[in-house]
Amino acid sequence: ETGDHAHVVAEARRKLLAKKVDFVVANEAGTAFGGDENEITFVIGEREERLPRGSKTELADAILDRVGELL
Q1: CA nearest 30: which of 46, 51, 53, 14?
Q2: Three-state SS across 38-69?
Q3: I want to staple 24 with a disulfide (CB 3.0 to 4.6 A). Which of 12, 38, 63, 67 is the partner?
């Protein structure tokens, strides 16, 4: 998604409700491309959890951990 953090989270929240999923992983498109690091925010219901900047591998592990918690 493009835009500032607040816009990205708002769009993720819209998708969360529209798709009726447990959570959405949001990231700003500008931080994701062309590098080995990224920043993500879990949008879960009415709350959000912003993870610190990390390698894409570390963040992928964090996403899989969160999915595992839901199973």
Answers
A1: 53
A2: ECCEEEECCEEEECCCEEHHHHHHHHHHHHHH
A3: 12
Place of tokens 């920043």: 39
Q: Which two tokens stand for residue 32?
A: 């994701």
Q: What is the pLDDT of residues 10-67, one digit of tens each?
A: 999 999 999 999 999 999 887 767 788 999 999 998 999 999 999 999 999 999 999 9
The span from the CA of 68 to the CA of 53, in Å, is 22
Question: pTM of the full predicted structure?
Answer: 0.86
With tokens 């798709």, the residue in question is 19
Strand-strand pairing, 54-55 and 41-44: unpaired
